[in-house]
Amino acid sequence: MRLLFAFAFGLLFGCGILISGMGNPAKVLNFFDVAGTWDPSLAFVMGGALLVTAIGYRLIFRMQQPLLAQAFALPTNQDLDTRLVGGSAIFGIGWGLSGFCPGGLVPVLGIGLMEPLLTFAAIIAGMLAARWAISTRYRSDTAQA
């Protein structure tokens, strides 16, 4: 049942990305081009997402437990550390250079263009590099202790 709901909500999200045009990197890049061909539609998409999220959180947190899980899985770490800031910066730079956010990338992977595939490969490579760097640091810290 959980898998069916995950598929349905993923499909709904992907359709929303495609209908809004956020799968088109030119539309996203035009949002960042405030001195040229600025396109505010990304701000409206983000605003709509924030509104839906705010309403959803208000409704969900009134529940004793989630519908499809035993408990809510909320982050506990509230520290603003170098990993969070660095990862956010790398994410923003990649988004600004490619025009693809991972949420907008996945729905367009199958359309046969090379740019989404290259961006996807770069994201996977970045994730693997980060995992390697973290595990190397962990092994180094453990060896010193």
TrEMBL record:
Q: Where does the sequence pass through the membrane?
A: 41-61, 82-105, 117-134
Any idea which UniProt keywords this protein has?
Membrane, Transmembrane, Transmembrane helix
One Pfam assignment: DUF6691
Segments forming a coiled coil: none
Q: Which PROSITE patterns match?
A: PROKAR_LIPOPROTEIN
Supply the name of the protein: YeeE/YedE family protein
